[in-house]
Design goal:
- The protein is of the alpha/beta class.
- 22% of the residues lie in helices and 21% in strands.
- The chain is built from seven helices and 13 strands.
- Strands 4-5-3-2-1-12-13 form a seven-stranded mixed sheet, covered by helices on one side. It has a six-stranded mixed sheet with strand order 6-7-8-9-11-10, with helices on one face.
């Protein structure tokens, strides 16, 4: 199976689907699933957007892509989505409407729940194992959404990982995890005092083959965990490269995981020439 992977998209959900459709056209292969590492930008009502998101929208209207494209069905959006058959599964970031997501999450016992009228975008609950099947191939995914509270903070914000989510992780037991999908990093991994301790614990206990995360601005980073097994990737944001006069996409913002089994798999960053055709001015028309 082929799995497309993105980190922070901040509302550019339709762009992610368009890129997947283009990859399929260019390669002649099919994408079976899209994974996204939080900060999808799920704000169904403008009044509930956080201060940072409002500020970014003033500079770049694509940040409100969820509200514009994924709250009310639109024929042109549906047509674009129909170029692919894959769903997008994501974990919460810190820039989401958490109260709204809590309400949706509490309605189902399933690992994922839809957040859009097209039934193509699904939020993965923290600490609830999810198995994706394509033909005779399967992959086991564990998600950890939101962020860790800074060491100096005494506030329990809704964007921080919640006590009931920590309990789920504590109670997991011996399970198979092929992919750990998170928004934040392990505690102290990127900055001292930042991150979520349970991420490191899950890597140590379950030794996933891959850990994908985002949250931290900057270029793609790749390391191998100390366990010698887990490949750790922080992808670049799916955003416009401000260093480029044409505002093309940030390099390192899309990856493809080719998966057959825990022994047979590979991950590559999409860096084909066509990828740079997608700019702030052109993406809607490609």
């Amino acid at each position: 199976m082929n799995i497309a992977v993105f980190a922070d998209v901040h509302g550019r959900i339709l762009l992610a689907f368009k890129l997947c459709a283009r990859w399929q056209k260019e390669t002649g292969e099919q994408i079976d699933l899209i994974l996204q590492a939080g900060d999808l930008g799920t704000f169904p009502v403008e009044a509930r957007m956080d201060k940072a998101t409002r500020s970014y929208i003033e500079r770049d209207p694509t940040e409100r892509g969820f509200l514009d494209h994924f709250t009310t069905p639109q024929p042109e959006v549906k047509a674009a989505l129909n170029q692919t058959k894959c769903n997008l599964v994501y974990v919460r970031g810190n820039h989401e409407d958490h109260s709204w997501l809590d309400n949706l999450e509490n309605r189902t016992s399933a690992p994922t729940f839809p957040v859009d009228p097209y039934q193509r975008v699904y939020c993965l609950k923290t600490g609830v194992p999810y198995t994706f099947q394509s033909g005779d191939e399967s992959i086991h995914i564990l998600g950890i959404g939101r962020i860790g509270a800074p060491a100096f903070s005494k506030k329990d914000k809704e964007s921080n990982i919640q006590p009931h989510e920590r309990k789920r992780l504590d109670r997991l037991g011996d399970i198979r995890v092929d992919i750990l999908l998170t928004h934040d990093a392990d505690r102290h991994q990127v900055f001292e005092g930042a991150g979520i301790e349970e991420i490191g614990l899950m890597i140590a206990l379950h030794q996933p083959r891959y850990h994908f995360f985002g949250h931290y601005n900057g270029p793609l980073l790749h390391t191998t965990d100390a366990n010698g097994v887990t490949q750790v990737y922080k992808l670049a944001d799916l955003a416009w490269d401000r260093r480029d006069r044409g505002l093309a996409l940030e390099p390192g913002s899309m990856g493809i995981l080719r998966w057959k089994s825990r022994k047979e798999h590979s991950f590559e960053v999409v860096d084909a020439p066509w990828y740079r055709q997608y700019t702030a001015a052109t993406w809607k028309y490609l």
